[in-house]
Every structure is written in C-alpha cells, then in structure tokens.
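Homework help board

Subject: predicted structure for assignment chain

Our instructor gave us this sequence and asked us to write out the predicted structure in token form, then describe one feature. I got the tokens but I'm not sure how to describe them. Can anyone check?
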Amino acid sequence: MRRREFLALPAVLAAPLATDARVTEIQIAFEDYRYRAPYKFGGKEVDRVTLLNVHCRLETRAGKSAAGFASMPLGNVWSFPAPDISYGDTLAAMQSLAGKIARITLGYREYGHPLDFNLALEPEYLKAAADATRELRLPRPIPKLCTLVTASPFDAALHDAFGRLHGRNSFRVCGREFVRFDLAHYLNREFRGEFLDNYLLPSPTPRILMYHSVGASDPLTAADRSRPIGDGLPETLEDWIPYNGVRAIKIKLNGNDLAWDVDRVAAIDRAAAAAEARRGLSGWLYSLDFNERCPNVQYLLDFERGLKAKAPAAFGRVQYIEQPTARDLASDRQNTMFEAARLKPIVIDESLTGLDALLLAREMGYTGVALKACKGQSQTVLLAAAAQKYKMFRCVQDLTCPGAALVDSAGIAAHIPGVTALEANAREYVPAANRGWEKKFPGIFQVKDGYLYTTALDGPGLCTS
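My token output:
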C-alpha cells in the first residue's frame, strides 16, 4: 500500500466506553499575587500574577462521579503581547474569556474522555475569544495562544477528575483502555492504530532536573544588587545556586542587542562557575530564551558564533535555544533554522499552538518543542506523541507556575519520555503562591540538590486536588 493511500484511511473508531463521562459542574475563581522581585523577559518586566482556578465534576452514565481541580497563571504579558493594550485590559480580556469558557464547557453534554472534550470544545473556545474581542472592543484579536492559556486549567481539571473517577493517574487513563479513538482522530493519519500509552510513561520518572531562571534584569552577584528585598530568600544567582543546588540555568536574553546578549551569557557563566566551584560541581547546563525577539536567524547565528568565540565553555553548556524569532512562522517562511540547529537544538514555544504549527516548524528547521501545561493537558500529551514520532528534542517549560500549576507541569515532565528537565521559577518570583504545597510535595517545592522529585505524582488524577 502506498503511503498516500495509507494516510487516506479513516481513523480507528470504537463504540462508547463504560468509562466515558460528562461534565456536570464547573466553577472558577481568581487569585492575585505580587512578585517578590520583577521578572524581565521579552523586553518587559512582570511584577504580578493572577491565577485562574478551576473546579469541575465528571459523571459516568452509571452515575459515578468525581471532582477535579487545576490552576494556571493568566500569563497575559506572554500570551497576549499588545503594546497598544494595557496590562489591565489584556488581563480583563482573559478573565472575561474564562467566564465564557466555563459556560461553554458546562454546556457540553456529550460523554467521552477529556481528549474528546478538548477536541470538540477548542473551536468553540476560539469563537468565544472572537466574541470577547468584539464585546470588549479590543484593538486587536485575542490570540490563539492566549485562548489556550485561558482554557488550560479547564482541560487539566477535567483530566484530573477523569483520573480520580477511575482511581488511576491521569497519564494512565489516556490509552486504549479509556479512549475510544486512536491518535489519528486527534492528530493525523500517520498515527492510525496508535494510542497515547505508546508515548507516555506509565509511572513518573523519579526525578527531573530543575531549570533555574535568570531574568534579563536579575542580579548575578552582590555587586549587581541595587534594590535589596530582605525577605530571607536568595537575591542573586550566586546565592540561589547553593540554596537550591542549581545545576541548570535558563537565561532570558534581549534579542535586539547582540553584544549585550553575548556578554550576559558570559557573565552568568562566570558567576555560575564561581558558585559551582565552591560546591565542587564541574558540570551544569544552560538554556537560552530569546522570547522571539531576534529579528532574524542571522542574528541567532551571529550570537552562537560570538558566544562560542568569547565564552566557549558557556557555549558548550547550552542544552538548547528557545523561540529565537517571531511566533508567526508562516509570515516569514524563508527565516529557517537549519544552520543554527546544527550547533544547538532550536525549539519552538510561543509558536507551538497545535500540530499544524509543529509540522511547519519542522519544515523550517526547528528541531525541538517546548511543552507547557499552560497550553492544555490534552494538547501537551498529543504534541508530545508527535514530537516523539518525528524525533524532535523535547523540553517542558514554565509560566512562572506555582502550586497546582507546577504539580501539573512536573507531572508532564515526568511522564514524557526524553524529557530530562523542567523550568520551575515561581519559587524565585512568587513563592507566596506556593504556600501549603511545600508540605504536600516537598520533593517538588523544597529543592535542595537541583532536582524535582516526582515519585509522589503517581496518585489518582493529576495530584492537583
């Protein structure tokens, strides 16, 4: 059979399952926190966060029910960048959209798996975003990425409830025993006859390396500290390294000042080398994040070569480079990453809003994907399967996720083969939002040796409720 004929075959379908459930309750609430220190990325500083908390309940046809919970920061600065719209207005747009998504989700009466709910409802969420744009008279539409972020705690809460409904971890109820359709139904015909249990680990990896974030304005040493915080937590990179046993550092770069970017990585490497030497550690990693600010791939090539020349040891420690240029890949198809990716893996983050974006990125030379809980549990596990099939580098990233959001992220990182590290920076910028979670999951929230210990994430659901 020719490949074209194979891809034209229908997805494997199945009869309804006794495990199928439907949504019976949805409740939302918001929490506001101030950062202990501002976090600069993408040319902007963020000093606050609003969490969207979602409670839900699912019920089977037999009347068995279970509750679920999830939480996610409404990262409006990152997901809805709009220089002509204020922070307050983009946040209000996400909060308005959250209300619409709650009503849409509660109104969905079909039985199925959370993967089915998400597939059916995402188009309705996008329509709701367009409605919110008109109603609020926004000068530009709410982006798809912003809609995914707003919808993500709803999707995660449903996964949490579904796992609890069946007394298993949510990652264990995503395979053929609980899902009616094969992956071709959710992705493309290349996945015909396959299910997520082919692509997810049944038990979590015992530990995941933690990436510590260094924002573009964060002090590296005591000499750089101009505004002491005085709350008892570390205030510089050289102090954070021994405090958490940091072994991996995510570096936020500007993308519009080549000399500054190269010098910043070199300076971080000097500070890290001194701090790690005092610990007797000789090996650690960097990831570099331009937050799509590089004007073109030539800037990235010049950066890679400049860093390799000025600080070869630092260049050697770079594990991957994240989203160097603008998120709208289709608008500049000639801006490919093939040459840059020969030096280091280049991963998409802001661009990754669906399988179509992943496939386009591959065509343009990207070699990896940044998976995030804030884009939805369903999309994340499905795109993790696609990334594995297409042999792409996989990492899991943060959205300054505290509490339940970090638990969700850690669960993703621990259940996807090939993921070795997870960014976790809420402990740096908004530790107040982690209160209460440290005792429940000390291995995740009390980092001592640079690792997150994830064996406790094998309980029912996503362990978020």
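Reply (TA_rk): Your tokens look well-formed. For the description, you could write something like this. DSSP finds 16 helices and twelve strands in the chain. That's the kind of observation they're looking for.
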